[in-house]
Amino acid sequence: MKTYFVTGTDTDAGKTFVSAALLHRASSLGYQTLAHKPVAAGCEQTPEGLRNSDALTLMAAINEADVDYEMINPIALEPAIAPHIAAAESGKSLSVGRLAGFARGLMMSKSDLLLIEGAGGWRVPLNQQETLADLAKSLKVPVILVVGMKLGCINHALLTVEAIQRDGLTLAGWVANQIDPDMARFQENLYTLNQMIPAPLLANIPYITGSNWQQAGAKFSEEAVRYLIDKK
């Protein structure tokens, strides 16, 4: 199995949208896919318990049948705020050790591709000492960066790349996800990022009305998917 940690340039970069698109594309090529969102805030009460819309999207995108919601999203928090604050308000604690235990359980499965999606950006705190970056470091998995294409994204992307490298992790690739349909000089920004990010551009996803991740999946070439799954 190949496992990747998916992070973004900020909260609204489109991590779930891009992850679902990639999982859908990999599934269409015959690969077994699995997803994991260790902690999610902004969950809603349902008869089955707290449920997060992002986690439900990931669940819909995978083709691994024998998976329940708690395997996808083991820690669901109701307040729609930073996870460590939501956890404190909910009387729960977050730690790298606990989250890594959940993730490693899924990493033992026989699927071909597992995407572990973070919350917010690279340095989102889990507690006063640890961040989600520490989780990725503990799991020792390569990273896929989702760049939310909008004004200011170049700085956000390059700072995130720098942080990933400083933490000793491999940036396997990045995805340009256009979240601003009216972004000026989109191609020029894309060119600059492609020149300055030391990892391959896996997909360039244009703004898609309705967040249709099935449609976005087609933007991942077969070569890009095979590169991720076959990467040493």
UniProtKB/TrEMBL annotation:
Top-level taxon in the UniProt lineage? Bacteria
Q: Which residues bind Mg(2+)?
A: T16, D54, E117
List the transmembrane segments.
Answer: none
What pathway does the UniProt record associate with this protein?
Cofactor biosynthesis; biotin biosynthesis; biotin from 7,8-diaminononanoate: step 1/2
* InterPro entries referenced in this protein's UniProt entry, alphabetically: DTB_synth_BioD (IPR004472), P-loop_NTPase (IPR027417)
| Signal peptide range in chain numbering | none
Q: What EC class does the entry list?
A: ligase
Q: List, separated by semicolons, the cofactors it needs.
A: Mg(2+)
One Pfam assignment? AAA_26
Q: Where in the cell is it found?
A: Cytoplasm
**What terms describe the molecular function in GO for this protein?**
ATP binding; dethiobiotin synthase activity; magnesium ion binding; protein homodimerization activity
Q: Ligase among the record's keywords? A: yes
Tell me which EC number(s) this protein carries: 6.3.3.3
Q: Name one GO biological process term.
A: biotin biosynthetic process
Matching HAMAP family: BioD
Q: What does this protein do?
A: Catalyzes a mechanistically unusual reaction, the ATP-dependent insertion of CO2 between the N7 and N8 nitrogen atoms of 7,8-diaminopelargonic acid (DAPA, also called 7,8-diammoniononanoate) to form a ureido ring.
Question: Subunit info?
Answer: Homodimer.
| Protein's recorded name | ATP-dependent dethiobiotin synthetase BioD
Q: Which organism is it from?
A: Oceanospirillum multiglobuliferum
